[in-house]
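S2.1 Query sequence (Dihydrolipoyl dehydrogenase)
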Amino acid sequence: MSKNFDVVVIGGGPGGYIAAIRAAQLGFNTACIDEWKNEKGGPAPGGTCTNVGCIPSKALLQSSEHYEHASHGFAEHGIEVKGLGLNLEKMLGRKNTVVKQNNDGILYLFKKNKVSFFHGRGSFVKGDANGYEIKVAGAAEETITAKHVIVATGSNARALPGAEFDEKLILSNTGALSITEVPKKLGVIGAGVIGLEMGSVWRRLGAEVTVLEALPTFLGAVDEQIAKEAQKLLTKQGLAVNLGVKIGAIKAGKNSVSVEYTDAKGDAHTGEFDKLIVSIGRTPNTIGLNAEGVGLKLDERGFIAVDGDCKTNLPNVWAVGDVVRGPMLAHKAEEEGVAVAERIAGQHGHVNFNTIPWVIYTSPEIAWVGKTEQQLKAEGVQYKAGTFPFLANGRARALGDTSGMVKFLADAKTDEILGVHIVGPMASELISEAVVAMEFRASSEDIARICHAHPSLSEATKEAALAVDKRALNF
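Output structure tokens follow.
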């Protein structure tokens, strides 16, 4: 006899587990199905983000940054380090511990909120507006039923044709997080978030990193001024970034990978790498969902087709996160998960795509929200800009990290903040002030007149807002 639920969520990543918790909070009898396994075969909810994405990458970025500080930065502070060594096994072990803590935390939250958890792969069997039958293929196969279904099955790394991932020589984000020996030469195809973050980790630990990017511009989605500053700083650190590259044949040998490519000038090259990370985007994961069996509509790119409220073409079936349109960001998935649970309850869940922050956790960090200067120009919007360098910020000087700047873009007439862009220390934390301000439709003068603690990095935000009106005080 199948178990009956009000809401069943397929997928336990950021969108799925948050949707399940919020649905349970709203009084629904809720279940969440997730198939991720840990090394021992046990449940590991949290999706790509927790297991092979956001969480482990930040753990390695932090560890590798500590290593770089110890090997290069501490001397400036009068701290002398002798006999510095790298225990990569322990570093990877710490990363795995951080992941497990997050897995266990989600299982605890399910228990706390009385969410029933099923470990296995969920797929549609049949259903209509009266309810859906969902099969759970795990250690023991079972069937459950639900009035509402939320699909949150995430995404998979996109492979290059003819260069499938073996996670030994040709790596996706999964393999890039588990390299057991620092490669002498590391190739990275794709200068996006994953490529730059993983390239930064292994460069800090001693690899010679070459980044190959097909697009002619660096970080084209980022404000151009910020992107140029970031490229300059990352190049100075030792990341060799090649733009306008056309990739040719990729051949995996016994212990290395060769990549034939043509540079922006049309000159041919062959790169020999110990490891190759391919980070050219991600594809929606609908494998095994049996979408076709129940008539769940996918769009031309394979995403589940949804409207502005995350409703699919099927009654009472919803979809959130990477498997639907919009930015593939964990926090976007979370907001959609909450909104859908609230819509099921008859409330008015809301996600503002214009105030979703973006972060690249390199050093310096890159973070932004809202429109870029090039977007405003293309749209014919009259705007004012203000920038302030961390070089003129007292806290940044004390930290010993004065790279980068904060940039404000505001409407020329109303002064409403249209975009904020940061490259520099702790940009991921600083951007939240801008998100709050834009959510409340604040003006740059509002930020300029708010008292910020001194000395703090956030003063650079205030100063950039002052600079919109050409009245910065410390630069």
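The two ends are 71 Å apart (CA to CA). The chain has three domains: 3-157+283-351, 170-280, 355-468.
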